[in-house]
């Protein structure tokens, strides 16, 4: 009998989770591709997919498998229980509607940026694109305003770990792909209090973000706003929008602090 070196695991559950994680990362895929990439037989993968499909966690369309709608209520419940979501949703909505833009409330997870809430103004440019991207609510940390605002305020060893373990692919000719250049940009972000995405993740799109910090200085996330490069210029680009996103971040910080004090009977715990 071999010595147990870690927590016991149910292999079938681990394999099902592996398949779900694969679909989360890759989107709709054919059975043969899933089996090949996960080094499993098509028959084995098909059994798991069929079981998950029956439960609603996987759906099948045009011979491709994808995550199912059964995840939706879980996602909404998890987001609704997140302190950052509770404290920041209304402010994120207000920012988007004021500037008729797209606004995100985000946090970091596993070296990527996860969207807790996304809202578009009525006439926001790129609204359809952002709506489609909600099906994949995480994105690279190095080329978006929210990602860079968060990266700039993570501990140095965490930043180095992310930059070492993850690639920095170019999405446009403006994307920063050199780690040293990115570190310089992160220092500038810390100095001025906000980040800028000037067509780094998408041509024609500009964005700003500010970190959301607890009273203790602990980073909890970021709020961002994005819009068209052709109209976001002059004082709107250099002054008004950066100040607006920093003000929104501060309002969320106040909400978080107030909620924390209410929970602890007047004593903030950070």
From TrEMBL:
One of its GO terms (biological process) is regulation of DNA-templated transcription. InterPro entries: ArsR-like_HTH (IPR011991), GAF-like_dom_sf (IPR029016), HTH_MetabolicPath_Reg (IPR050707), Tscrpt_reg_IclR_C (IPR014757), Tscrpt_reg_IclR_N (IPR005471), WH-like_DNA-bd_sf (IPR036388), WH_DNA-bd_sf (IPR036390). The lineage of its organism: Archaea, Methanobacteriati, Methanobacteriota, Stenosarchaea group, Halobacteria. This is IclR family transcriptional regulator. Residues 70-258 form the IclR-ED domain. Keywords: DNA-binding, Transcription, Transcription regulation. One of its GO terms (molecular function) is DNA binding. Residues 10-69 form the HTH iclR-type domain. It comes from the Archaea. Gene3D superfamilies: 3.30.450.40, Winged helix-like DNA-binding domain superfamily/Winged helix DNA-binding domain.
